[in-house]
Every structure is written in structure tokens, then in C-alpha cells.
Amino acid sequence: MDIDYNLVQRAQMLLTLDHPLTQVRDILLREGYPQEQVVELMDATEEVLNYLVPPQYDENKIGIDILHPGEEKKEGRKPTVDILIDKRSGRLELITPHQPETWRVANEVRKAIKRQRKTVKNYH
User: Fold this and answer.
1) Distance of CA 83 to the CA centre of its chain
2) What gap in Å lies between CA 102 and CA 94, rounded to an integer?
């Protein structure tokens, strides 16, 4: 099944913000994404997180895979890590800094982390 690219990006952003998979699934369904695509994406994500963790990851890091222009979102495409995020410090490591999309996504992630930290500070 083809999964909407916007759905994948939204799921990646939510996971980057440290939401658990069940919460991501609920958020995506509430936002109106097709249930069968959400379920398939979350099942695949869970499988990847449980079984195919690359060595540069640990429990404190999240990797983001970006579909760059010219790449096809075809079945069997192996995910690659373009951005690695440290959950504790919020520090981003750009694995593919030569790609303009990596910078664009990294800037959006930085903004989201900054907003999240401001929200947390307001509650403490």
C-alpha cells in the first residue's frame, strides 16, 4: 500500500517530539489520515524500532529519514538516517548535511524542540 508522504512526515515529527507510538497513532487518526495507512505505518515503525535499530542509535537517540527529491518512495526502499537527535540534550547531528532538505527539516525540528522546551518551562 502506498502511504501518504505527509502522513509519514507528520508521524516522524511526532515521534521526534518523543510521543509514544500509541499516542502518535491516535493523533494521526484524529487528524483525519486514513486508518489503514496509519495502522500500516505504525506497525512498520514499531517493527523497525524493535528489530532494525542501527548501531548509532541508542535509547536516547532518534533518527529521521528524509525522502529527498529524486528519490522514489517505493516499496522496499531502505530507510537511511539523515538527522540524529539526542533525546536528552535536543542536539541534532546532520548525517547528510549536503542535502538541502536535511537543513530544512533540521530547522523545523529545532523550532519544535524550542517550542516544547518553552512549554515545559512554563509548567515548572
Assistant:
1) 9
2) 7
Buried b (16+ CB within 10 A) or exposed e, 6-19: ebbebbbbbbbeee
Say how far apart CA 76 and CA 91 lie, in whole Å.
Answer: 30
Instruction: Identify the bridge partners of residue 84 per DSSP, sorted by sequence position.
Output: 63, 93
- Per-residue pLDDT of 33-53, as tens digits, reads 999 999 988 888 877 665 444
Nearest to 105 by CA among 89, 88, 81, 121: 81
CB contact at 8 A, 37 and 3:
yes
Lateral strand order in the sheet of 83-86: 61-64, 83-86, 92-94
DSSP strand pairing (83-86 vs 92-94): antiparallel
Mean pLDDT of 56-81: 73
CA-based angle 116:95:102, to the nearest 5?
60
Beta bridge partners of 92: 85
Does the pTM exceed 0.85?
A: no
